[in-house]
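FAQ: What does a ligand-bound record look like?

Like this one, built around iron/sulfur cluster:
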Amino acid sequence: MKSASTLEELEPLLKSKYVKADVKQTFKACQELLSLGKLVLYAGLPCQIAALKAYLKQDYSNLFCVEICCHGTMPINIWQDYINVLQTKYGPITDINMRDKCKGWHNVHVTIKFKSGKILSESSRSNAYMKAFLSDKYLINACYTCQFKQGASGADLCIGDFWGVQVARKHLDDNLGCSFISVYSQSGKDLLNTLLDEFVIEQISPEEIFRYNSGPKDLIDKTKISQYNKAIFNEVADIAEITKALPKKLGIITLHLHTNIGGILQAYALQKTLKELGYDSDVITYDIADDPRGHLNFVDTHIKVKRVSDATKFTSIKPTDYDGFVVGSDQI
Ligand code: SF4
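The answer part, i.e. the structure of the complex:
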C-alpha cells in the first residue's frame, strides 16, 4: 500500500484491485504525517481502518478515514496462483484492469494484457478469479465473522457501487458507474459537503442500496466455505485457448427476415450478443420483393445481413465466407 500527495501519485492507487493490500508500513507513515499536522485521507477495508485506529490510540482532527463497502477478501496466494497459471500459458503480464468498462459498467470486464501482445478480456461474471471471489467460498477466515462493516470500523465515510441504480434511480444511470457514499460521522459529512459542487448527489436509504449491493451482508454462514484448490484456475487458460480457437466471422442462419417481428428481433438480439462477445456476423437471409409492413427498414438499419436471391440459393455462400455458422429457431 502506498501514499500519495499529488494527483499523479494517486493514479496507481485508483481502481479496484480485488487483492488485500499489505498495510503494515502505512500506519507509522500515517501517524508521522498526522503529527506534522498534514491532512490525511486513509482509505482501505473496514478491518484495516479499525486496525489503524487501534494503532493510533487517539483521535486526530486532521484524519479522514474512508472504507470501501467490503464484500470480503481472498488470501493473496489465490491471486498468485491465478497469475502464475496465466503467465505460464501466455508469458509476462504488463497490465491488469479488474474493472474495465469497455463493455459498460453493468458488464465490467477483467482485462489482462501480456507482453506478447495477447489481451485476455472476460466479463467479471465469467472470469475464474472473480467467480471464486463472488462465490464467498474462499475468503479469509476473518471475513466470515467480520465485526467491522457498516461503520463499526470508525470510518467517516463508506464508498461502494450503487448496483441497483438502473432500477432505483434510472435517471442517474449512464452505464459508466454510480457510487453510493454512507456518512458515519460529522467529519465525513463535512468532507462530503466540500464535494457538493463536483458531483450529482441524491439522498437514498440504506435499504435501497443494500438491496442490490451484497457487500454488507453477513458471511457468518460458514457452510459456504470450501477448500481452496489451485486446480480451479487451470480451466482459465483452457477456456482462453478455446476462445482463441473459435471462429471470428459467423454466418447466422435463422428464420428469414421479413414479416415475423419476433424473428427479426431475435436475429437482432443474437447478432448484438455475438458482437459483444467479439464476433462479426451476417444474418443470411433471402431477398423479399414486397415489404407491405415496412419491416425491412428496421432490418436494413439495425441488422448486418447478407442476402441470397431465394431460399434455394444458400449454396451460393462459399465455405470461405465464414469461419462458422450459428443455426437456429424452431423452423430451421
Ligand atoms: S469482510 Fe471484514 S474482515 Fe473481511 S476484508 Fe472486509 S472488513 Fe476485513
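Follow-up question: can I read anything off the structure? Yes, for example: The longest helix spans residues 261-276.
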